[in-house]
């Protein structure tokens, strides 16, 4: 799909693959997201950054259908997949669309009682109904891609954090998702292990994977992201191209944030 970037606002013209439309989210009486709208277009890498507690993870979890919005809706290819009312139509659509959304979490979340290969073939067999042989062939190709084919028979406990996260990425890819969402995928890793995971993410981006990436990795956001979304206090404060954000942020809040992390 041809994406045109609007140079001033960073918003993209054309149809979005997945969108948050006016999403608010309250936990109890406390609203932590206040009417957030975000479009992710096919083939785009959208990086979400901001101070701790600004609502990045909550936004991602709403778009990934792991939290229900208190207001607003999530739309996938023109179909509402989550709304504040929890309507039957949205719930039905969500069931169909959920496998299209790949997820990679901070804490890997591999099944400890399954081997690396077992982790990657489980969902394609159970959810997509793939025969074991087919699922295995595909899984081995994906493990090759993330550099983990030689560890296919190992259990997660015997792998480093970086290796586990690469398996988690292969597991997400095994479902042929339309979009992969990364929630601070490198935050739990030692610096030397982060690079191997970032390298896999960089490769996916180069291959045209649609990605929503909540991250503290400013280098990645700057060099790989197509768009940079800066959040503060439950709102999107800037949605722009990464280079403009890092060289000339337009909000005082972003200026302060960048100063703090430098
Ligand atoms: P970020 O990812 O930017 O660090 P989060 O989305 O994790 O921010 O959190 C935003 C706010 O929502 C924080 O104040 C956090 O404490 C609160 N919050 C997140 N999840 C929950 C929850 N399940 N219950 C109550 N409060 C939550």
UniProtKB/TrEMBL annotation:
Compartments, as annotated in UniProt: Cell membrane
Protein name per the record: Amino acid ABC transporter ATP-binding protein
Cellular compartments per GO CC: plasma membrane
GO molecular function list: ABC-type amino acid transporter activity; ATP binding; ATP hydrolysis activity
Family per record: Belongs to the ABC transporter superfamily.
Membrane topology note: Peripheral membrane protein
Transmembrane segments: none
Alphabetized UniProt keyword annotations: Amino-acid transport, ATP-binding, Cell membrane, Membrane, Nucleotide-binding, Transport
ABC transporter domain sequence ranges: 18-258
Main subcellular location: membrane
Name of a matching Pfam family: ABC_tran
Origin species: Falsigemmobacter intermedius
